[in-house]
């Protein structure tokens, strides 16, 4: 049906003032008095509602009554006029209810807790908060694609169903067509009778296949859903999330760190430009100083520190950490918060982690104890990027896999990339929802996903 978006009315108001326009949207609020009524509608194109003024002597009473219902969908036609109080509004001439809404509509009030809204994920996009979240999510995704396209990367789609566990942590969701009560004498018999004739699961990362693609295409990136059956019920973990994973040939750790920093700054700058209204809302309502923080990230150099140096900083901090700080132990959230929020007060790359706490594919440093890996830690979130130079030497990679008791037969194709024309190459993984949390101030990953998938919740 022919209509004008609310965002277009506000952004190009001079074109429409004094003219008849038709709009569609959902009723957010309404007010009534003896001779006049007001409806505020929103169509999802703008955070700002359009106020519709109803002069009761000009509109049939039955039409007015059916339109004064929170949650119902309307098509309204009227004169778009300037307003001293609202900037612009519509003087109603006719209204049609497109979809009625009963009184048990859960969003009758203006404000609801986020905990309550998580119980109605199918309705929460109709709130201002989630309208803003998903607007920024869309803009952030576009900024990511734009960055890599502008820098000559090819976008590749790696398998969602896979037979390899990239991280080696065994936290994969199994994919099967076998009945729940399949009668098999052995595990091998069970998988032989399955759809693929082998054990299959949902991918935890597209990195291994991304490396394969990069070995012929030079620079690639993946951007898709990943899955981890991890029993972690924190504000930063979800079982289904989206991940960005570039892979770059002829690139060492220092090169990929530069790429990672430039990438983060670029996409933040892009979102600041494309979503000023939404970020202003988050700055006012969710995280005071958000826009100032994001501008500071763009204009400052990220800090860099080795894991060994970070451990010494933490030991000398005088802080009574819940988890002891010892060389060889992974950094915990409290350690990351101290480094980013108190010591460096900005994003920081921590490099050269102990080999024993990192993945098999990371390049072993000359010291034989650490690997050419880095995590980018940011204030408020912690780790946002996991990055490394990959082990390019066939024998060293094979030895790392044997040490971890990994079945080499499952990684034949991956090992072949080191056998046939191996090159230095590096890449990183960025959790999309964590990045979205950082640029919006959203505190819980459940509020960065349309339908969050977490342990015990489908």
Can you describe this structure?
The chain is an alpha+beta fold. It is 33% helix and 23% strand. The protein is built from 15 helices and 16 strands. A hairpin with a 3-residue loop joins strand 4 and strand 5. Helix 5 (128-150) packs across helix 8 and helix 8 crosses helix 10 (290-299). The mean pLDDT is 94.
Gyration radius, to the nearest Å?
Answer: 27 Å
Largest sheet features:
8 strands, mixed
Helix content range? 25-40%
Q: Categorize the overall geometry.
A: elongated
Give the overall average pLDDT: 94
Name the beta content range: 15-25%
Which ranges are low-confidence, i.e. pLDDT below 50, for 5 or more consecutive residues? none
Number of strands: 16
Number of helices: 15
Strands of the widest sheet, in order across it, are: 6-10-11-16-15-14-13-12
Alpha carbon gap, first and last residue: 36 Å
Structural class: alpha+beta
């Amino acid at each position: 049906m022919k209509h004008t978006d609310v965002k277009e009315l506000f952004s190009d108001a001079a074109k429409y003032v004094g003219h008849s326009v038709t709009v569609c949207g959902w009723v957010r609020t309404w007010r009534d008095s003896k001779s006049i009524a007001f409806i505020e509608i929103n169509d999802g194109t703008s955070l700002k509602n359009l106020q519709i003024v109803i002069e009761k002597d000009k509109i049939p009473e039955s039409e007015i009554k059916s339109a004064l219902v929170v949650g119902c969908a309307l098509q309204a036609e009227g004169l778009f006029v300037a307003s001293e109080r609202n900037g612009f509004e519509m003087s109603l001439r006719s209204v049609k209810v497109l979809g009625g809404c009963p009184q048990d509509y859960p969003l009758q009030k203006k404000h609801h807790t986020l905990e309550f809204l998580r119980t109605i994920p199918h309705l929460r996009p109709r709130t201002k908060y989630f309208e803003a979240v998903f607007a920024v999510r869309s803009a952030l995704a576009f900024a990511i694609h734009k960055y890599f396209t502008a820098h000559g990367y090819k976008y590749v789609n790696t398998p969602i169903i896979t037979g390899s566990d990239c991280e080696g942590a065994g936290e994969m969701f199994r994919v099967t067509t076998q009945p729940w009560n399949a009668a098999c004498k052995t595990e091998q018999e069970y998988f032989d009778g399955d759809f693929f004739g082998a054990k299959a699961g949902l991918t935890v990362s597209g990195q291994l296949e991304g490396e394969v693609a990069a070995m012929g295409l030079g620079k690639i990136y993946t951007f898709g859903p990943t899955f981890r059956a991890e029993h972690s019920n924190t504000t930063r973990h979800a079982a289904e999330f989206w991940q960005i994973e570039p892979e770059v040939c002829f690139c060492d750790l220092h090169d990929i760190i530069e790429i990672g920093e430039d990438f983060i700054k670029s996409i933040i700058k892009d979102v600041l430009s494309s979503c000023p209204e939404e970020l202003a809302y988050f700055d006012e309502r969710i995280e005071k100083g958000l826009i100032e923080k994001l501008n500071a990230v763009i204009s400052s150099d990220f800090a860099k520190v080795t894991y060994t140096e970070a451990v010494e900083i933490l030991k000398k901090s005088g802080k009574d950490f819940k988890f002891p700080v010892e060389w060889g132990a992974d950094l915990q959230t409290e350690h990351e918060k101290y480094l980013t929020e108190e010591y460096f007060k900005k994003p920081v790359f921590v490099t050269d982690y102990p080999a024993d706490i990192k993945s098999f594919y990371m390049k072993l440093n000359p010291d034989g104890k650490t690997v050419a890996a880095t995590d980018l830690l940011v204030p408020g979130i912690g780790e946002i990027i996991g990055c490394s130079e990959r082990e390019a030497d066939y024998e060293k990679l094979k030895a790392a896999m044997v040490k971890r008791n990994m079945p080499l037969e499952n990684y034949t194709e991956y090992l072949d990339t080191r056998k046939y024309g191996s090159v230095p190459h590096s890449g990183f993984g960025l959790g999309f929802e964590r990045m979205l949390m950082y640029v919006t101030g959203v505190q819980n990953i459940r509020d960065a996903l349309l339908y969050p998938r977490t342990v015990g919740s489908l």
